[in-house]
Specification:
Two copies of one chain form a homodimer. Chain A has four helices and six strands, in the order H-H-E-H-H-E-E-E-E-E. Chain A is an alpha+beta fold. Chain A starts with a helix and ends in a 7-residue tail after the last strand. At the A-B interface, strand 5 and strand 6 of A face strand 5 and strand 6 of B. Chain B binds a DNA duplex through helix 4.
Chain lengths: 139, 139
DNA sequence: GCTAACATTGCAATAGCATTGCATCGTCAT
DNA sequence: ATGACGATGCAATGCTATTGCAATGTTAGC
């Protein structure tokens, strides 16, 4: 239902415009994290910059989080947690498959506590694991 | 001693040219990981592309490793481990300071074992922690 | 219904990093 | 010497991210 999507936007204090409804709808259908390019290709003919800003807005409001998987292109995925703009503690692991080149959130695999050297203070953590995903795993 | 630097190159099967000696010497003097830009600025007047390729060569041969800290610019730092080109298992944590914007290797802080979901297979891991480094920590 | 204020969108343009092609030059072995 | 090969330097390009600005839509007040 469109109503559901609309509600999710409003809950995050995002003005539910047509474009945003479409983007959010598209994002919910994704299995893997997608780049701006993927989004542009996946959606109908839309303006790249608008999509870019839509993602930025979503990120600021805590609806999606961005992932730097080392491919050079930032990927985006919906937040599972109750993030808000300030607290993006997506402390789950991200997995990049070297075979299918997709980036997945592993929401149930959390980043463990790391004890840093004296006087280093953690604010964010970002763990990318690269390898072979379950789908590409042969045998 | 230049001899020492030269030996380190030869040990890694890298032809010790003047440029490479300079770059490696410069790298050893760094406290933090540096970007191509930093390298270019820090060295005398040198060609950016040559520096780029020098770093690539060093990376291939296992002398340095590259770090994606999310700033958009790839950073490089000397490997501490006995890496070779194939096995870049720099399983230590990298720390990005939000205050001084520097990226540090924490060679003694290793990435712990992570148990992934079934049929996911790890090949590399990359953990970036962002926060405040020991130098910038006030108090 | 009209209008002013504001948010959103779309186009153009730009910045910055990464990367390749090609020509030149140096080095080393025969 | 010369030929092969690696290294260097310049030019050019691709790609992602990002901003400026104008046009457009949307909302609230009258």
């Amino acid at each position: 239902m469109t109503k559901d999507i609309e509600h999710r936007l409003k809950n995050k204090d995002i003005n539910p415009t047509a474009m945003r409804l479409l983007v959010l709808d598209f994002l919910t259908k994704q299995v893997a994290a997608i780049s701006l390019n993927d989004l542009e290709k996946g959606m109908g003919p839309s303006d790249r910059i608008t999509l870019y800003r839509t993602l930025k807005t979503f990120e600021e409001k805590g609806l999606v989080h961005s992932i730097e998987d080392g491919t050079g292109a930032t990927k985006y995925a919906l937040c599972e947690d109750n993030c808000d703009g300030d607290h993006h503690h997506d402390l789950h692991v991200h997995f990049y498959c070297n075979t299918c080149k997709e980036t997945f959130c592993l929401p149930n695999t959390k980043i463990p506590e790391i004890s840093l050297p004296k006087r280093f203070q953690t604010e964010e953590m970002n763990l990318i694991i690269k390898g072979i995903c379950d789908q590409c795993h042969s045998g």
